Amino acid sequence: MVKLQGSVPATSADMRSLGPAPDDERIDVTVFVRRRAPLAPHSLDAKPGQRRYLTRAEFAAQHGASDADLDAVAAFAQRAGLVVVERRPAARSIVLSGTAGRVTAAFGTAIERVEHAAGISRRRTAPVHVPPELDGIVEGVFGIDDVPIARPHFKFSKESAQAAMLASMSPGAEPSDAQAASGFTGIDMAKLYDFPAGLDGSGQCIAIIELGGGYRSTDLKAYFKSLGLPAPHVTAVSVDGGKNSPSLPWSADAEVMLDIEVAGAVAPKADFAVYFAPNSEQGFVDAIAAAVHDDVRKPSVISISWGAPESEWTDQGLAAMDQAFEAAAALGVTVCCAAGDAGAHDQNPQNGTPDGLAHADFPASSPYVLGCGGTRLMVSGHTITSETVWNDDPTTSATGGGVSDKFALPSWQADARVPASINPGGHVGRGVPDVAGNASPATGYRVRVDFLTTTIGGTSAVSPLYAGLVALLNQKLPQHVGWLNPLLYGPLAGSGAMRDITSGDNGGYAAGAGWDACTGWGVPVGSTLLAALEA
């Protein structure tokens, strides 16, 4: 057996071992295989009108998994007493099922049951191994462990947190709109950030990745009615058994509703596909692949408001997701990711024991996604009076941002003056974020969640805000915007399409003129960005 590169388990804190997992426990495993052929280098400076995107059918045929590779994994599964559940050629994966005893024997690993703050999970305690004939074919094996991997990047305002606590104490109550909260809506933000007028997202599909929680149609109807808009068309897509599961008290529902309500207010005529998956590395990998390669709904932009410090992922997980984002770029799909809500260190004490180091949040640190940082916005009437780096508390309520420890400095970011990491060694890697927007819960977003109108902030709000903007751009442009990063750092630099944020810090990095590791290039000026892309 050959050790699978990148499969060493990530370090996990605050977990208590409960002993070996039962041999008869049923496990579904996603085996990720190599591409049929490498992707050609992307044209970094071509505007959307000059880009050549692949169709999903073309991508599957040219760069998906080959039948031979999937057959090789299927033959191995049969010898190991595992069952093939599904083949996903475009996503380069095959799902196998079997007992824990057979799975661990087949992949030469070991698992235990662990207890943690979110419940009880399986945890892999050894690397994955594959037989020699699969060495070089298999690039990842996910699902042997199912420890929660990611956190939603939203924050309640102080007043809303108190209301949420009261709601959790009375789960049967349905608070009235007399408790309506303050805050901006997506409509307000679109006006303040000068999103192009006369567009509504028609013809576009916005994908949203969720690792828990759910939405209530009654809440969506009530919320959008309050905005004078019809509720958008929303479809729940199940991945790995994940479902639309709204529940009291609050759980991850706040994340799901924030995402839909912010993006829906910006692009109300867009279709929304919400991909629900379990909160695990397998669930996250499979949900992203499902959205990128969905040839039914064909999303043109994906919003992701979940993430975790890079150090908490396995290398195989980072690689599989990054390659899915690279595929999105080849397909002309823009991916917007929240940069985190716990400052430069990205380790909220409420979620474990901080290690004292700075961390970039993944997936925002992937070079193929638009990393979305946070600001604190002050407005008088309909005019912005000031906008600074969001830093209400550097460890628990501040924008993520910094320097990746996992991804090298991209060529298109070479002239952005990305600083050395504040960690020992001063490594220079991919700088995060790329853009920023209003995120402080003190100046947050008015949304409706589980019958209650409340105020929520966090970079979770920025990702769907800009996913909505991309849907508007895609509606107007001759073809989809696609991968924005090389344009922001290349031909769009100096075009006036971004409003620089120069004041503040995130507890590790300071804002300044030009790009910085708190707010990136700053806030998109929507109508100017559209004009620059059309030029």
TrEMBL record:
Domain Peptidase S53: from-to ranges: 183-535
CDD domains named in the record: Peptidases_S53, Pro-peptidase_S53
Bilayer-spanning residue ranges: none
Entry cofactors: Ca(2+)
Keywords annotated in UniProt: Calcium, Hydrolase, Metal-binding, Protease, Serine protease, Zymogen
Record-listed Ca(2+) binding positions: D500, I501, G514, D516
Record-level Gene Ontology MF annotations: metal ion binding; serine-type endopeptidase activity; tripeptidyl-peptidase activity
GO annotation, biological process: proteolysis
Location of the region described as Disordered in the Swiss-Prot/TrEMBL record: 1-22
One of the Pfam families matching this protein, by short name: Pro-kuma_activ
Record-annotated active site: E255 (charge relay system), D259 (charge relay system), S460 (charge relay system)
Superkingdom, natural source: Bacteria
Cofactor note: Binds 1 Ca(2+) ion per subunit.
Protein name (database record): S8 family serine peptidase
Species per Swiss-Prot/TrEMBL record: Massilia cellulosiltytica
